[in-house]
What we know:
The structure holds 2 protein chains of 2 kinds.
Chain A: E1 18-19, E2 29-30, E3 32-36, E4 48-54, E5 57-64, H1 72-78, H2 85-89, H3 96-111, H4 117-145, H5 149-170, E6 179-180, E7 183-184, H6 192-215, H7 218-224, H8 232-237, H9 242-246, H10 254-257, H11 278-302, E8 309-311, H12 319-327, E9 335-337, H13 351-357, H14 369-374, H15 376-386, E10 397-404, E11 409-416, E12 424-428, H16 430-442, H17 447-457, H18 461-465
Antiparallel strand pairs in A: 1-2, 3-4, 4-5, 6-7, 8-9, 10-11, 11-12
Chain B: H1 2-37, H2 58-68, H3 79-95, E1 106-108, E2 111-113, H4 123-144, H5 148-179, H6 184-190, E3 194-195, E4 199-200, H7 203-206, H8 208-221, H9 245-270, E5 279-280, E6 283-285, E7 291-293, H10 296-322, H11 330-361
Antiparallel strand pairs in B: 1-2, 3-4, 5-6, 6-7
Amino acid sequence: MAEEPQTEEHVDSLASRVVGEGEEGELQFRDMFLNMGPAHPAMHGIVRILVRLDGETVLGADVEIGYLHRAFEKSCEVGGYNQAIPYTDRLNYVSPIINNVGYAMAVEKLFGITTPERCQYILTLMSEISRITDHLTCIGASAMELGAFTVFLYMIEAREFLYDLVEEVTGARLTVSYGRIGGVKADLPDGFEQECREAIERVRKIIGECHGLLTKNRIFIDRMRDVGVISPERALAYAFTGPMLRSTGVNYDVRKAQPYLVYDRMDFIVPLGTNGDNYDRYLVRMEEIEQSCRIIEQCLEQIPPGPIFADLTGEPIETERMLELAKHKESFKDLYEVKVDIAPTLQGSERIFHDVVATDDRRAFLPPKEEVYENIESLMNHFKLVMFGHGIEPPKGEAYQAVEGANGELGFYVVSDGSGQPYRVRCRGPCFNFLAALHEMLIGDMVADVVPTFGSVNMIGGELDR
Amino acid sequence: MIVEALIHLVKVLLVIGFVMNVAGLLTWVERKQSAVMQDRIGANRADIFGFRLIGLFHPIADGLKMITKEDFIPPGGNRFLHTMAPFAAFFPALIAFAIIPFGDVLRVGGRIIPLQVVDFNVGVLYLLAVGGMSVYGVVLAGWSSNNKYSLLGGLRASAQLISYEITLGLSIIGVLMVFQTLQLSEINRLQGELLFGFIPKWGVVVQPLAFLLFFTAAVAESRRIPFDQPESESEIIGYFTEYSGMKWGMFMFADFIETVTVAGVATSVFFGGWQVPYLFADGFHFPWGSIVALPHLAVILLQVASFVFKVLFFCWLLMTIRWTLPRFRYDQVMRLGWKYLLPLSLFNILATGVVILALQAL
């Protein structure tokens, strides 16, 4: 318990007031300092908020970050380009695929690679699944911190359906490392579309239940409404993005403003709030879940088919060629349905899937394992890409790529000096700006409001401290 | 004389046994019910020789754990008060049940035994007085821990409990005006009468508004969500932040005992206590004229069963509320108490008085 502020250079908001002279017989009043975190149940383990209190009213606040700093950007410079992908998983660990996408697209920009269409659809779809998992976690956790534990577990259940999908596609639940420079690790597994549609329906049902438990609940509205308010001007001044910015009514969504992947072909609404308070942030997130569900459904409808038919050599046959073969009535001669054997690796990572989910640029993407084991060219190609001192070598230059993360604009700025290691990787995480403005949102509210406001900011330590 | 004392002793042991056991079981009920509500399985791991008994051993395992844990007193805290506080919280919660009747008089061998530990003629006042004492444990715990979180919890608790005590008392006054007595056994007996020949004259029937006010205030008194500001485990961790082991266990157990007590008082004052609709001393008298005669012992057993059933129902209701709602903010609790519940309870007294006068004038 800090009796006095512990550091010398504290901001003015922490200057303690002393009322009364403390003379004989006169009571002396002093503001109370309360140290919330880093070991506080609602601080998610990794942030400290020092608040100055008058009774229960917050008069000043100082947010201290950096407890989870692990030198993400510096680590990226040490390894090769692809070796940074597992690090990006750990940025916003509730929606890791979006991080993979952002980083991989920045490097692809350096190369000038375009990924195949199916790969772009897969990434869009998986990004939206990640966005839903992130929003579910955020809303659920802040509901739990308000005492509504049941809503939390409902939302975690919904998240579980989506994590099952993620696990099937990527092979992992949390640290997926699914994105690659120039493609993705593996194609979608068999029967994915059906499972995805079912999962989306289940998520919608649970979201309906949570609407019933929270949205019109008077206690919940009282706790959230007009708490943690930030004006559009201040939000823009702090460079807010994502649901936090949109809750103030500013219409900015990277998916609309600078469409990437196939977002320009999707029909979705960007929900906007009006007050910029916790309740609007809650509503914006709830609506974004629904819009993400819509995007996923559109992706499933529009996605170009993967390789189902292959010829005797295992080469995928394009639709046009199949038509041509059918015209010459040769289709039944050398065409048959290939039942793909489940390799010990992830389903969908075999050779026949390779071309539809990854670029054919051999400078960036590893050749399929079958070829590596079969011919010397692919073996050399593989070696060149994975050996230290070689690796992926984008041309000299710099590139910035922003994606709409679950919390806001997630940008990667990559500088290449032509070698196998990035010269500099800079990550622009959305949480950092929110935490910079947190004290403004807290001052004037009560101690009990610190928790929902902090929860609606959805600070993810991995992304904040990097 | 010795027989009298023995009868009293048995009754005391019965009531304490009932309250303690129900409170102990409530820890299990809370886990299992929340699990059912949240699509989970709930606690089911503690076993004795491989028997798990759907998790019923967990209260025992918890008790063993808490007894054997280190008992920590924070340096700088007040040792005496810090040790006193759990007892101050535990004791009033336990003795409140003493005046709640769990059945009508039992006649055995020419002896008349009222099924109630003590039958005060100012029973309701005793309830309020004992309820008011429970604030000491919480405040002392908050104050003696030398921890700012505990202090905030203690301050919230003192403000909240004292505010809601007023509503609690005023809401019961309506019932007292209707039944014209402070004696709980008498109130229970009068609730056996019938209105218009077929509606049981339960407190909730004649005083519906008072029941809602009482129940709200009682939930606030028992410091459960949505009124768990003193605890608020995600905000200020609570007044028992600095407690460990069995002392913490006593606070938790006192909470569950208070749940049972609240259920008991709500049953007794508003839901007829041990009354079963249309059951009189000699059997059922249904409004359509048929009579089912029952022996005395069967009637008493039915009454006790009715009381236990109602208490368990209210315990269940309190649990359901606990796992459905989020919690208020401290100032909102104060506003609700002083600006809505208090005027409403005053209005209830006024309206009750007007109706009683009007009925007398007729």
